[in-house]
């Protein structure tokens, strides 16, 4: 009696062989087919720390759509284009985090200035201090 996993593995090999030229697919020996099955079943590339694959099926539309979001440690070498993209994303992330940190520091300094009663521009206010005081009164 075969299990579901076993049938699924055989299906993957059959699908792979089905995409080949029939003369080439029929030339595989039993040992070669078993080696293909073993190579396909020992895929470690499908194990990810984050694996989010939602499917969107719209009513009255004959297709369904899927989105894949994967995350984990990259174990393969990167092409030059992928290295450039990774460096660009890293710099953009640093920039966004820097802007957020700068904004938080600015608000903290502004609240500290207002708490100490320092007024650089008379009769001008951002209203942050009044909103902050309103949270506690």
Short account of what is shown:
The chain has 137 residues and is mostly helical.
Write out key terms for the chains shown.
elongated; mainly alpha; 137 residues; 57% helix; two-stranded antiparallel sheet; 5 helices
Question: What do you see in this structure?
Answer:
- The chain has 5 helices and 4 strands.
- It is mainly α and 137 residues long.
- Strand 2 and strand 3 form a beta hairpin.
- The model is unreliable at 1-6 (pLDDT under 50).
Layout of helices and strands:
Elements: H1 4-18, H2 22-26, H3 30-41, E1 50-52, E2 55-57, E3 64-66, E4 69-71, H4 80-116, H5 128-136
Antiparallel strand pairs: 1-4, 2-3
Helix pairs in contact: 1-3
Q: Quick one: biggest sheet? A: 2 strands, antiparallel
Task: Provide a count of the helices.
Answer: 5
List how many beta strands DSSP finds: 4
* Coarse morphology: elongated
Euclidean distance between termini CA atoms: 73 Å
Radius of gyration: 29 Å
Strand content: 5-15%
Structural class: mainly alpha
The average pLDDT value, as a whole number, equals: 84
- What share of residues is helical? 55-70%
Low-confidence stretches: 1-6
SSE sequence, one letter per element = HHHEEEEHH
Please list the strands of the largest sheet in the order they lie side by side. Answer: 1-4
